[in-house]
Amino acid sequence: MATNCGASKRKASDEIDYVNFSIRGQDGSLLFYKVNNDTEFKHVFEDYCKKKRLEYATIQFLHEGQRVLGRQKPKKRNLEDGAEILAMKQVMGGGVATLIFY
User: Any idea where the Rad60/SUMO-like domain is (predicted)?
Assistant: First the structure.
């Protein structure tokens, strides 16, 4: 007769789910992250900016062409293992207002 020796079995719903993804900067560099599916992206994005010496408020993060907001979580965005998020500097201005008409 086998005994469990005090080790408790976890239910699948109690397990912590993690996701592995990378953030690619405009310079082509990659930083890899492994986070809990319930962690807000803001924590990861702030860490990325700190490591790259960037100002968080000036960077946009994109996944599959859609902006990723700091308050979102990987589970909400259905982020899969191995996904890549792009970090792009925001560009303000441009458009018709900057054209000079003669």
Answer: 22-85
